[in-house]
Write a structure and sequence with these properties.
Blueprint (H helix, E strand, L loop, with lengths): L11 H12 L4 E5 L21 H8 L5 E5 L4 H8 L11 E4 L4 E4 L4 E3 L5 H17 L6 E4 L5 E4 L6 H18 L3 E5 L2 E5 L5 H12 L3 E6 L5 H12 L4 E7 L6 H6 L2 E4 H16 L1
Parallel strand pairs: 1-2, 1-10, 2-3, 10-11, 11-12
Antiparallel strand pairs: 3-4, 4-5, 6-7, 7-9, 8-9
Helix pairs in contact: 2-9, 4-5, 6-7
The structure holds the ligand O=P(O)(O)OC[C@H]1O[C@H](O[C@H]2O[C@H](CO)[C@@H](O)[C@H](O)[C@H]2O)[C@H](O)[C@@H](O)[C@@H]1O.
The ligand O=P(O)(O)OC[C@H]1O[C@H](O[C@H]2O[C@H](CO)[C@@H](O)[C@H](O)[C@H]2O)[C@H](O)[C@@H](O)[C@@H]1O binds next to β7 and β9.
Pfam families: Trehalose_PPase (PF02358)
GO biological process, one term: trehalose biosynthetic process
EC number: 3.1.3.12
């Protein structure tokens, strides 16, 4: 997919968001998803790493802002490690909200605050291998253990990732419900995790804490739609906001593309956008 990279939002709301960010960067919050937005999608989730320019671009921009935050489904420490975000000059105030906002890492302390592991996850983790065998054979299926806080079933490396995803969605939903969990669908991944927290709740709370006067949110997947909805809601209440989609693969959900004010070409495009904003604020 080719994009004309002008960094001009296609909607009036998006243009207002960008104008507010550039006029008062000291009141702006830039919030970014990790996988697919800062880190290119790769077949093996353990091999994902941020785009080589991501930390540097964010470090150029962050000192101009009220706050920069990374909002990810990953455990926060994993995103910090895979992103190379620790001890970077310019990122002294970076916050990483992991597990969709249930967990928080602060660059200032270098520590993560993690809630107690939910009971249902322990039970699901034990039951999952046998359960998957019972619902069909999908060689290549991979279970990601997310530090006891969630488990994710990845279909990307099966022979038919779409068919496996669709075949497993309902049964995993039932398994999750039996253990008081919910299923979070993503790019060839079905994650079983506790209910009650999502990127929208997390972003809204963070913006309140930061006293934000504007927000830019960039994401690429279904889990980012809750953050999109939060920005749309805040815009209706008068807070300017810019929604950015990181796109480039056919698998980018249509709803993400349709609701974004600005589409950029994957993590490389996000890095160019961050650099562009830093240039304009320099
Ligand atoms: O909220 P995010 O930062 O976007 O994290 C969402 C999930 O990302 C990871 O999975 C995705 O990226 C993998 C690596 O590129 C890819 O192989 C997989 O198909 C994608 O779904 C991660 O493994 C999950 O734990 C995150 O919840």
């Amino acid at each position: 997919m080719a994009f004309a990279e002008t960094f001009t939002p296609r909607t009036p709301e998006g243009r207002d968001g960008l104008t507010a960010l550039l006029a008062h960067p000291e009141r702006a919050v830039v919030a970014l998803d990790f996988d697919g937005t800062l880190a290119p999608i790769v077949p093996d989730p353990e091999q994902a790493r941020a785009h080589p320019g991501a930390a540097a671009a964010l470090a150029r921009l962050a000192p101009h802002l009220a706050a920069a935050v990374i909002l990810t489904g990953r455990p926060a420490a994993v995103a910090v490690r895979y992103g190379g975000f620790a001890e970077v000059p310019g990122l002294e105030h970076l916050v990483v909200l992991g597990h969709y906002g249930a967990e928080r890492w602060d660059a200032r302390s270098g520590e993560a605050h993690t809630p107690a592991a939910p009971e249902g996850v322990t039970a699901v983790r034990a039951e999952l291998p046998g359960f998957l065998e019972s619902v069909g054979r999908w060689p290549g299926l991979w279970i990601e253990d997310k530090g006891g806080h969630a488990v994710a079933v990845h279909t990307r490396r099966t022979d038919d990732p779409d068919a496996a995803f669709e075949a497993l969605r309902a049964p995993l939903g039932e398994l999750a419900a039996r253990h008081g969990l919910v299923v979070e669908p993503g790019r060839y991944v079905l994650e079983l995790r506790p209910p009650g927290v999502d990127k929208g709740v997390a972003l809204t709370g963070f913006l309140r804490e930061a006293g934000a006067g504007s927000v830019l949110y960039a994401g690429d997947d279904l889990g980012d739609l809750a953050a999109y909805a939060a920005v749309e809601d805040l815009r209706a209440k008068g807070l300017p906001g810019l929604l950015v989609a990181s796109a480039g693969a056919e698998e980018t959900p249509q709803e993400v593309l349709a609701r974004a004010d600005l589409t950029v070409a994957g993590p490389a495009g996000v890095v160019r956008l961050l650099d562009h904003l830093a240039d304009r604020l320099a």
